[in-house]
Specification:
- Helix content is 67%, strand content 0%.
- By secondary structure, the chain is mainly α.
- Helix 7 runs antiparallel to helix 16.
């Protein structure tokens, strides 16, 4: 059994739009640019310096490559399911249909929590960036203004979100391309007065400062940098012709990871010694010493260095924009399935889940804690919490895809009929699961190096997820769905 022509067109049917209330306003160019630039933001522009400083250029590069490889497999897994079943509550829906309704419940709320706390992390970073131009200003002011701006963009319509994200992503993609060109020119002596060469990878105990433990210590930083890649699947439920456009967007994943993450970390590590005190470290509240800005300053491009901070601002606003969109859609999907208060399932005349959006925005108010504890501290807490919940989310996607493919075959369906087929199955989801187990428990050996607040903010998501999973399972008496009973119905 393959997917019928009727099934393929289900989500383009006006009747389905009327039933769900969601508007399929996102176009191919929106989805493609969201796939390219969706996760390029705070984690890469702001946090990469601390990774290099902690683990050395080689250690940071290994951490980003490991997490990047895992994210590639996660996205191919998600691409296969999302192109076949493009729904706004993708993670919750896939886990519910192919694993266990209790697992879907826990994964859905975990995703909401992940994106909800990513929002204040990005708003906090935005306030830190504004201190570059207004050093004595209030973090409360800038976080509040950013929150209002993003709220307005999301309230307008899904097209308003898509259009703003398209231009946000375009700016940061262009900035990284310029950065890489300038960086390579400095390495080979075309700019900056002399060839930087490869010396920073051999000085002292570089490239692996601190050994294996230091690599584990920056895994969370790398994990935070990749948060948001899955927004393509969340947006599939509001995209025109998702069976065609989702696979097109997913196919950019490999090159995006290679160019925008791996090459960027390599260039920064080659140009700036990991011992440079100006690298952004834990607790420092001045984003003007982002490694991107430092590279432009070393190239003698003072204006470009200042402009880079404006790019940083658009990047973190873009990441916050995606977080607000993703969390509100997941809350809407949970409410629609009866797994969240039904009030959050209400949509306005433009197909926007207003109450879900407003409730999520309230979480963004926690960014205002910056004014009490200091932006650097709050940003670190939120970054660690977001990375760990993100790992749980990716684990859920891998498990769901493994079961999806097994059920698809068990029910006699034709794999050639899938709009997008993930490569390397079953190795992709299996490798993802193994990597995540190692990453999560690898943090345990570092527990004595952190304060209790940081430990709690990082690990609280694990018992919370288990409580949601088994609590729902006990109350609702759910069971693992047998492969031959998995529901492939495309109707939301």
């Amino acid at each position: 059994m393959g997917k019928s022509e009727k099934e393929l067109s289900t989500f383009n049917d006006p009747a389905v739009k009327k039933e769900t209330g969601l508007q399929r306003s996102l176009q191919a160019r929106h989805l493609t640019m969201m796939a390219i630039g969706g996760a390029i933001g705070t984690g890469l522009f702001v946090s990469s310096g601390s990774a290099i400083s902690t683990a050395g250029p080689g250690g940071a590069l290994v951490a980003y490559i490991l997490v990047g490889a895992m994210v590639y497999f996660v996205m191919t897994s998600l691409g296969e399911m999302a192109s076949f079943m493009p729904v706004s509550g993708s993670f919750e829906t896939h886990a519910t249909k192919f694993v266990d309704p209790a697992f879907g419940f826990a994964l859905g709320w975990n995703y909401w929590y992940t994106t909800a706390i990513t929002l204040p992390a990005d708003l906090t970073a935005a306030s830190m960036i504004m201190h570059y131009w207004f050093p004595n200003s209030s973090s409360l002011l800038w976080s509040g203004l950013a929150l209002v701006l993003l709220l307005v963009l999301n309230i307008l319509s899904v097209k308003g979100y898509g259009e703003s994200e398209y231009w946000f992503a375009s700016i940061k993609v262009l900035a990284i391309i310029i950065f890489l060109v300038v960086g390579v020119a400095m390495i080979f002596g075309i700019m900056g007065g002399h060839a930087v060469g490869f010396g920073n990878f051999t000085r002292g105990d570089a490239p692996f400062h601190g050994g294996m433990l230091s690599i584990f210590s920056v895994i969370l930083v790398a994990g935070f940098a990749f948060q948001g890649t899955e927004v393509v699947a969340t947006a599939a439920g509001e995209t025109k012709d998702p069976a065609k456009n989702v696979p097109k967007a997913i196919r950019t994943i490999f090159w995006r990871i290679l160019i925008f993450y791996v090459l960027t970390i390599l260039v920064v590590g080659l140009i700036i010694p990991y011992t440079d005190p100006n690298l952004l470290k834990t607790g420092i509240e001045n984003v003007s010493i982002s490694p991107f800005t430092l590279v432009f300053k070393r190239a003698g491009l003072a204006f470009a260095a200042s402009a880079m901070n404006a790019v940083l601002l658009t990047s973190v606003l873009s990441a916050a924009n995606s977080a607000m969109y993703g969390s509100s859609r997941m809350l809407w999907a949970l409410a629609k399935e009866g797994k969240a208060p039904h009030i959050f399932a209400k949509l306005n005349s433009r197909g926007v889940p207003m109450l879900a959006l407003l409730f999520t925005s309230i979480i963004g108010v926690s960014a205002f804690l910056s004014s009490l504890f200091g932006s650097g501290s709050v940003f670190l807490w939120l970054m660690n919490a977001s990375a760990m919940t993100g790992f749980i989310k990716w684990l859920g996607i891998a498990v769901s895809h493994y079961r999806f493919r097994k059920a698809y075959i068990a029910q006699g369906r034709d794999l050639s009929q899938l709009p997008y087929k993930a490569k390397w199955f079953p190795f992709g989801p299996i490798i993802t699961i193994l990597f995540l187990v190692i990453f999560v428990f690898g943090q345990v050996v570092l527990i004595n190096d952190h304060g209790w607040v940081e430990i709690v903010s990082t690990y609280i998501s694990i018992p919370a997820f288990l409580l949601l999973w088994f609590g729902y399972k006990i109350i609702k008496k759910t069971k693992v769905v047998p492969l031959k009973e998995c529901d492939f119905d495309l109707k939301e």
